Amino acid sequence: MFKQSIIELSAYHPQKELCEIILDANESYVNAPYNRYPDSIALDLRREIAQQNKLSVESIMVGNGSSELIDLVMKCTLSPGDQLLTFGPTFSIYELNAAILGAETVTMMLGDTFDFDAKAFVAQMEAVAPKLIILCNPNNPTGTLLTKAQIMAIVEATEAVVVVDEAYIEFGGESVMDLTSTCKNLIVLRTLSKAYGLAGVRVGYMVTSADNIEIIDKVRPPYNVSAVAQKIALETLQDGLKFEKVIDEILEEKEMMMGVMKSWVQIYPGGGNFIFFKTDKADLYEALVLKGIRIRKYSGGLDGYYRVTIGSKLDNSRLIEAMEAIYEI
Question: pTM (2 decimals)?
Answer without folding.
Answer: 0.96
